[in-house]
Amino acid sequence: MFEIKNIDGCAKSGIFKTVHGDIKTPVFMNVGTAAAIKGAVSTVDLKNINTQVELSNTYHLHVRPGDKIVKEMGGLHKFMNWDRPILTDSGGFQVFSLAKLRKIKEEGVYFNSHVDGRKIFMGPEESMQIQSNLASTIAMAFDECPSSMADREYVKKSVDRTTRWLIRCKNEIERLNSLEDTINKNQMLFGINQGAIFDDIRIEHAKEISDLNLDGYAIGGLAVGESHEEMYHVIEKVVPYLPSNKPVYLMGVGTPSNILEAVERGVDFFDCVYPSRNGRHGHVYTNHGKLNLLNKKYELDQRPIEEGCGCEACTHFTRGYIRHLLKAKEMLGMRLCVLHNLYFYNNMMEEIRQAIDNNEFAAYKKRKIDGFNAGE
Biological process GO annotation list (predicted)? Predict the structure, then answer.
């Protein structure tokens, strides 16, 4: 399923084969939490900006419209008109970050919906059932995401429970994939490595979950309060203990510089809300750093967001016009900024793959980060 094309240091380029098409790695997955990219960006737009994988969220789609409704509509691909791979996050992170009232037990988690307050239970089996109803390409295992600041004793107990939950996820997805009415009988499962910033807990957990021979492996519980240096350290420690023939996914990360650093350490999959969230607030990424188009200095600026960029915003509109749209609170301004940012990320990943294939990744990374730091 995962064919490695070239290795340049620890960075690697590859092709991950799925029932919904091949994924060229390293890849950035565009985040459409509730089956849509925030910022009025459609799946037609996603194809136009060369998106390979769309990511949606189990928890949010379970709460609204309901995963059973999505199944009745033919599954997530048909529901949102997207014929390329989809990864669904298990909902675990949202349960622990959004639910104000929750109770963790061995069977799963009891909590209140952040939308209407109704009581919900989610455990490994429920998460797999919801994701099976959504019929995503890749399902994520249900885990607990302890704070990176949590004490060692709590983290160890949490990770042990996450391992037990992962085994239950594996058994349940195998059962679901065998059912006649399952839409995607080839749904894959990625396990998640946890352990906060404790090297030994992380490494031991990586060894344990590697033995389960899953389709891929994620590093979770990072970018949640620890420093960038701590995050990079954890990646360096964990990746060597994950299977070299399976993709590694760093969850929820990050900035363009974060991605370059993680690729250098052997990571293949990424996702983050930064491009869309920042775009909705007029913050756009360029090879000369991030710009805030709301600044007055762009009022009469007739340049595109970035010279030479092939996105819809840059090929048709000026910084001054987009700034006007943002100031006037016209949705088009938000949409153009989100489109640009997603294009920038997707294009950067293409450049990364080419650099690895040409054994030039170190030079490419330095050139890119130097540009980010130099500014306009």
Answer: tRNA queuosine(34) biosynthetic process
Single residue among 243, 272, 301 that ends a domain in this structure: 272
Known binding-site residue numbers for Zn(2+) = 309, 311, 314, 340
What is the C-alpha separation between 191 and 248, in angstroms, rounded? 10
Domain that holds residue 355: 279-374
For residues 298 and 230, state if they share a domain: no
- Greatest alpha-carbon pair distance for the chain in Å reads 61
Catalytic: which of 8, 67, 268, 271? 271
pLDDT, tens digit (0-9, with 9 covering 90-100), for 18-59: 999 999 999 999 999 999 999 999 999 999 999 999 999 999
Tokens for 360, please give them: 């030039």
Domain co-membership, 29 together with 158: yes
Residue that finishes a domain, picked among 272, 306, 324: 272
Distance of CA 280 to the CA centre of its chain: 18
| Bind-site residues | 89-93, 143, 194, 221, 309, 311, 314, 340
Contact in structure between 337 and 282 (CB atoms under 8 Å) = yes
Residue type, 365: K
Q: Choosing from 89, 181, 268, 357, which is the catalytic residue? A: 89
Record the pTM: 0.97
